[in-house]
Each structure stands twice: as C-alpha cells, then as structure tokens.
C-alpha cells in the first residue's frame, strides 16, 4: 500500500498532470491491488495448475486425443475453482501426427543427426530423401538464390538465434522455419532442414509450425539441433559435398474439433464490458508444455481466481480464455475473434501470457495516444511487483494479436525471456524449468492488471497507430 | 621460468628439506617445462584432434564399424604427427547394438517418457514389458527389499546425482546403474529403470555400462531422463499404481576385435622405462564422444607431440596409449595390463585423461610414501599452470586403475567436473561443450607431467597403501 502510493506520487510528479487528474488509482483500487499482489506472492495455485496439467495431461497437441483430455481438464479445474461462468467454444483444428524423423549423413562422414519434423510437414517417401545439402546463412540468402538452383538438393538454413531478454532473436530467424519450405521448393529443393530456432546448445531439435503454399510443391521440412547444425558446418569446411538422408513419417488426418475454454468473473457494474486475460491450452507434442504454455494457463487462471475470490467484484467482467491450437497458427485466437465479432467493441483490453515463466519486467500497452499516460498512471501499483511502465506499441500476445486491427486495446506484460528459447518447442519444455517464485510474480502482475483495467474509467480507444 | 623457480623455492621452504635435496627440477627441466607450458597454451592441436575425431568419425561404440574407423583415424593421426613409434594391439570386445528404446506410462496418466537402454542390456519381448513400478530412493533401499517382493514389477531407482567439482556424486549413484538389474531381478523384477546418473535437467537419458550375473535372470535395464524421473514421482504422489510399458530392442552379437592404439617418444637414456599417458578412443554411441573421451585423446596426443618435438628427448620413453572399449568395462585397460605384464615393472608412472575437458586444478599421486614429497617438489612447475599439489591417493584413471595393484605408480590430474555429468553418456556429448582454452591448459599439464616424470630420478616404488 505504501509502495503503491509512493509510486503514484512519483508518476504524478514526473508524468502528465492530466493523467493524474483523470486516473488516480483511488484508494480502494490501490488497496485491492496491493492485496492481490500479496495474495499472489503467497499462493501456489499457478504452480499447482501447471503441475497438474503437465503431469496428468502431459503433451497435448491440438487435434490429438490428449488435446481433448486437456479441454476436459481445463473445464473441470475452472469449475472447481468456482468461477462465475465456465464454458467452451468449438474450434476446428487440423490433425497432424509427428511420426518418426531420422537423418543421417551419408557422405563424407557417415553418422546420425538429431532432427525433428516441423509442424505440418509432409512425409518423405519410405526410402527417404537422399541428396547433397546447400547451406544458406539466412532465409534471405536462400531467397536470393536463383530459380532452379536447388534442383535435386536439400536446402539448409543455418541462421543462429540470438539470446535476448525480449526474445527478439526469435523474430529474426523464425521466418526460415515458417516460410523456408516454400522458398526452397520454389527453387527446386527436395527437402529443407533448418538450424533449430533456439538459443541452446542441446542435442534437441526445436519444432514449430511451418506453412505450405498452394502453387508450390510440398517438401518435407525438419529442424536440426544446434550441435548437429554445427556438425554439418564442420563437414562442409572439409568437403563441399555433404549428402544427407532424411526419413520422416508425419501424417495429416483432416480436421478435429477442439475448444477455447473460458471462465468469467462477472463485472459488478459493467458486466457486458470485458477485460480478457488469456493463455493457450494446447502444446507441442514433445515436451509436456510446461513453459509453452502451461505457465500461461496457470498464471491467468490463478490471477482470475484471486479476483473471483475478492469480497467485491470489479466493475467490468474479467474473462479468462484458454485458447485452442495456438501452436498450429493462432487458430483458437482467430476463432475467438470471429465468434465474438459482435462483442469486440465491448472488449476493454486484452492480454495473453505466452512467453514462459520468467518474471515480468515491463508492461506495454496499445491504447489511444491521449490515454497512454493515464493508463500508465492507473497501472502504477504494478511497479511494486517489479513491473516498469513501458511503451504504447504492444501486440498483446499471439492469440490476441489480431484484435487491435478490430480496435481492441491490448497490453503485453513483458517476461524475461533470456532462457525461453533454450527450451521452446523441444522435449525439454518440462516442469523443472519453472521457477515457482517467478510464476507467483506473474500471477500478481496479471491479477493487478486485470483488476485495475476492470476498474479503470479511462477511454482507451481509438488505438494509436503503431 | 621465473614462475617455476619461485614455486620451487616456496615448495622447498614449506615442504621437506629431503625432497628439495633429492629432487630439484634442475634448471634444464624447469626451462623445458616452462617452454612446454607456453607451447601448449598457444597450440590448437588438441582441439583440432577432437574436432577431427568427432566430425570425421563421430560416435564410435566399441565393437561397431565406427570403432575400427576410429582406430584407423588414430593410427593415421599418430603417424602424421611423427611419433617415434606407432602401433596397435588387438583387444577382444563384445558387440552390442542399442536398437530402439521406448517407454510409456500406461496408467494413470498415459504419456511417453524418454529412456535409453543401459549398455549391455537385453531386449524386451517385441510387445514390451508392462508392469507397475516400485520406486526406491537408492540401490541400497532396493537391496533392503525382501526376496520376491518385486515379482511382476518394474523396479525404479530414483537416486539423484549430486553436482561436485570432483564428480564424487557419480560414485554414489552409479552402482544403481551397474548392479541394479541383478539386484532387482534377484527379487523377481521384470525390468529396471533408473533415474539417469547425471546432474542435468535435460530430457536426455544417460546410458552407461551395466552387468549381469550368471545365476540371476537377465532383465532389461534402462535409464530415464531426470525430468521423466520427476514425472514418475509426481504421478506416484497422486496414485500408487503407476504402470509402465517398456519396449527395447538392443542386441548382442558376440565379439569383435578392436585395438589399443599406441604412440611412443623413445627415451634418450632409459628407453625401456615407460611414462604412460592415456585416454580412451571408444565412445558411447549417442553423442560424438567429444568430452568422453575425445578430449582425453586430444590432450594426451597433443602433450606427447610437444615432447616429441623437443630438441632433446627426455630420459624415459613416453607412451601415449589410446585405449579400446573403456566404456564396456575398461576392456582396453585390462588387455594392456595383461599384454604388458612383463613390462609393468618398467612402468615408471601412468595417468589417464578421462574426465572431460575442464581445467586441471590438482595433481594427486600414488607413489611410495617416502617419495611423495619429492615427487611433489618435482611437479612444482605445474603450479604456474594452475595445478595445485594434492594427495597420495590417486587411482590414475579408469584404464590404469588396475596397475597400482601390480605395483605401478599412478597420477590423477584432477579436472573441474562441475558440468561433466550434465553431458556424460548422452547425445549432448558434443564438440560445442569443450572450451578450447581449458583444453590447452590440460595439454600443458600433461606435457609437463610426462616430461618431468620422464626426467625424474625419484624412486616411486613400493606404492603407499591407500
């Protein structure tokens, strides 16, 4: 409480007077916000939820049997926690099964390599694909190679992902994963392998979604672990002609129904206005999806539960959305936006937790320019939880990233992502990678954010252009 | 040079006068030792050798085709380096092929687990073995369970390996790997799984040798990755009845011939007396054996080469031995001891480098009690390379560990093993885990050790009883 007032004072002294006049978190908001922080930092609920999800459900690839087990798990948990409303909404998701993936160097130095299929990849023929590799530093370098230049070859994009707190290294390399197959195939390649989009040095390949294009042949696409990508480089240093054999057996099986699972705390005075906090329920199939996105599920659910248990509910409704099939292309997020099209004007603000379990160090918004200072002032109590006030350029997180286009304000609660891409989309995404104390700090931040936004009287629209 | 004299002085002041009288590293030894250190710290030879071995040969399980590729690689390299003698000696090794290993939890929470077969394990039936698990904290706890108590069960030893610079955590847990199957089977178990003998939190299981006993049924034995062992614990916390299914297809195929590959720098005045520095050429099959024991191969070979290139050879012969089949039970080491039985009395001292690529922080000896102070004084120049003088309780390293029983003095050049058991016997044992500067420090230490011992006039026998 003392901290909160102190920060407010600093904000008022250093920020705009207008903001302070418009939006002092009044003493009740300060008091509740302080209480939420205190409660979050002493609650094990988020960790218990991640443990339960990762142990009792485990991997839960969208469209798989385990995906529906996860949906049932989520409904049961949300009901047990006593939210005002719990419901689910169907989402059509593709069904893809990983099968096996093997790679060997045939020449000059025969040995096995560790690979994994990229999500959505087609299979190789049973006998595999055997061809020389052509190495590119980046996707851009591959795109600069001439038509036909990869005929009979396997393309190899060898782009290293940099380690940053913000995770910005991922944005620079992930295009090779998502668009590499199309670019390689359009130049005649038989298959593509990429250095994993990851910052670790483990002998694990990072999977992740890739896309095909209707007018371009569909070629198998796989990721190599970082040490295996190094190994190919050291072979190429000795001999230009490195021949790989890849065998992969993923299969697509049409579509299945999954669900966005939703819980609500009904607003006390503006129940039709929504503050949305989300995470995604699906995971890749190789780890247990602890960081991606069990952590998010635990964080936003526990944050919602703290608000559900308040003696007096905030003005607006808080909606906790556990999205389906984020990994396969933000499918649950897009389905939500479509299903709630008519209600989007009533979405006050939205944020998704989907960047692991590192501490939140900053909150960014995307709101009206004239509202930005005011919303920062309103958020000032979050500072005592280690959350600095940031910029007005947030995307909000993957499953809400399409909402700003429709006028919905968003916030990004920035997590420390130093080690997130060590584990992301690998078998190593397991419970032991989560620091319970950091998870509690996240819960505190989401609870404060959701509560303060549900109480805010600031007009957040129209959005600032980025 | 200055450093060397300074250290000698300190040793003389603080150590026994006798030692100083007997064994001053004379000015020539000091000068050569200093030059060896300087040359080692500016040479990339050891790293180049490890890179060549891990890239051009890769995994080289004793008894496999790649094992013979490694033998040829070693002969070629040692010949190219111009050692006075290069030869190989046959070693009979068992042939074992890993096949596949899969485990799933059948109940209560179906999901896959990451396992690997322990080296030498038999296969499961094709349909696998499906049974409830019985968890033990340690091998000792399993041994305390009554006869028949594991009938129809899969034993699970869940002993965590502690992280220590010395690696001593390994010694406390490895018995579960080597002897667990016999102990479990003698109590009726159908199979055994153990928490990997490792200090990491990676989703990789650590393989390693295990033994059977003629009068006890041979049951399949596998290691679980650390996160998977955690997962079983979290399931057992919820439900006593955790049912596993294990499918493994390793196969034994009799015996093959491998080789100890040996190089010598012929001694100038006592050519029939031997200073042996060794490492093992074989590796497990899942990584590329960079740390275990490509590093050792690089270190002792590069150290030998520095001495080979000296303008004046030391008194004794230095023998670089690259042992066969260490991983399968010190087979090359035992074969060497047998083949050189008649020559062991002429082995002045022996040491093996087989603990990765961490810096050497201490040298321990096992020599005559009355020689110990003198040999420390003789070794004093190693201090300028960061090597402290240690105890008189060395084992010498796995492949020379049987020599003290036959009267041969040994030394252990202790490496920092903080992270060694993160990677040991996993797919993660790859070149990127080696710090080139630390490798150079090792080469300097081995070159100084070998040279000084080849020049020493101290009588090292009879050995101190441990």
From TrEMBL, chains A, B:
<keyword id="KW-0333">Golgi apparatus</keyword>
<dbReference type="GO" id="GO:0004180">
    <property type="term" value="F:carboxypeptidase activity"/>
</dbReference>
<dbReference type="GO" id="GO:0006508">
    <property type="term" value="P:proteolysis"/>
</dbReference>
<keyword id="KW-0482">Metalloprotease</keyword>
<dbReference type="GO" id="GO:0005764">
    <property type="term" value="C:lysosome"/>
</dbReference>
<keyword id="KW-0732">Signal</keyword>
<dbReference type="Pfam" id="PF04389">
    <property type="entry name" value="Peptidase_M28"/>
</dbReference>
<keyword id="KW-0862">Zinc</keyword>
<dbReference type="InterPro" id="IPR039866">
    <property type="entry name" value="CPQ"/>
</dbReference>
<dbReference type="GO" id="GO:0070573">
    <property type="term" value="F:metallodipeptidase activity"/>
</dbReference>
<keyword id="KW-0378">Hydrolase</keyword>
<keyword id="KW-0121">Carboxypeptidase</keyword>
<dbReference type="GO" id="GO:0005576">
    <property type="term" value="C:extracellular region"/>
</dbReference>
<dbReference type="GO" id="GO:0046872">
    <property type="term" value="F:metal ion binding"/>
</dbReference>
<feature type="domain" description="Peptidase M28">
    <location>
        <begin position="260"/>
        <end position="449"/>
    </location>
</feature>
<dbReference type="InterPro" id="IPR007484">
    <property type="entry name" value="Peptidase_M28"/>
</dbReference>
<keyword id="KW-0458">Lysosome</keyword>
<feature type="signal peptide">
    <location>
        <begin position="1"/>
        <end position="19"/>
    </location>
</feature>
<keyword id="KW-0964">Secreted</keyword>
<keyword id="KW-0645">Protease</keyword>
<comment type="subunit">
    <text>Homodimer. The monomeric form is inactive while the homodimer is active.</text>
</comment>
<keyword id="KW-0256">Endoplasmic reticulum</keyword>
<keyword id="KW-0865">Zymogen</keyword>
<keyword id="KW-0479">Metal-binding</keyword>
<protein>
    <recommendedName>
        <fullName>Carboxypeptidase Q</fullName>
    </recommendedName>
</protein>
<keyword id="KW-0325">Glycoprotein</keyword>
